[in-house]
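Database export, one record per block. Field names are fixed; values are copied verbatim from the stored entry.
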Amino acid sequence: MQPPVPPPPAGPEQPPLLVAFLLLPNFTFTPFAGFIDMLRLAGDEGDRSRPRKCRWTIIAPSLQPVRASCGVMVTPWEKLDDPARYDHIVVVGGLLPPPGRPMLDAACLAFMQAARKARRSVIGVCTGSFALVEAGLIGPGGTCCVSWYHHQDLVDRYPEVTPVSDRLWVRSGRVTTCAGGTATIDLAATLVREQLGPAAAQKSLHILVAGTQRESATPQPHPPIAVRANDLRVRRAVLLMEQHVSDPLDGDALAGRLAISRRQLERLFRRDFQVSLQVFARDLRLSHAIWLLAHSEARITEIAGQCGFSDTPHLDRCFHQAFGTSPSRARRLGAAELKRMLLDWWPHGGAGSALRLDEVAEELPSPAPGAPPLTDRRHFP
């Protein structure tokens, strides 16, 4: 077990920044590590890691190790106590519990509600933002930043909340929600810059080889679209398509992953989307192309390759068929217009239930021989 938070160094006029990390079961390790390392580097000269300018601690209802989604066990330093002690409380989520099960146990829920009464800054990272909604820190009509991957999960579980999936984080009063992943490094850099100065933030970013800090409005790298499908196998197929956008799987490979025939898979897609498997796959790649046109400086040739088109003319033909213009001309419309174009055009449902792979794997048949197991899943942000 790690020692509790060390006392502040003697003599400073202002007490050092104190940040508490509340790790939920199956939390994602990268957001936690990135955030805490920014604080570590900002808290001292060079890479000496002494908590001189800012301090941090890991809190939980007990001192039992908390398992990350990758299997790493982290032992809390302290039990939950008075949240008024902390300048910021960072709630790190990860794998979602099954629908209907709470994100927070009774002790964590009481602690979060006490933090709200104490007017503390609370930051929800990855699906930690779901816990903020559950604890009442984000009420009906409030905004909640969430990874594009969990956009539909938030809609399904908390329809009264407005999801934001096209930026890295959102700050609303004393509540901040962050998409997770490496975006937490940029969020932590903002916190350090505001409270310890720009030099401390820049120094930490440089040591982390993180480059220039991204601002909160920086778009996420994936369009926040959803599909309306009734069959679990179709939802699984869509997830596999998303994983292989740059190197598309053909119909036989997709069907093999799902342990069904290609003919059956084609029939399921026509039933749920009224289009062929090939048309849906093309539309999915086009949605990625529009997002990259709007939010990257990649050349059209590069975008064609990243989105699984054989070459630039192939992308041009499909793009013109769908939108009546070329990718280069569409790019000149600007990011806002391209985003509106995508959301207006996406023909396969935007408010349906799109269960994630970990939620559907147990309900699907075993994969075909040689195919990856159905419990394989994408990395959570």
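Remark 1: Residues 17-207 form a domain with the Rossmann fold fold (CATH 3.40.50.880).
Remark 2: The longest strand covers residues 17-23.
End of record.
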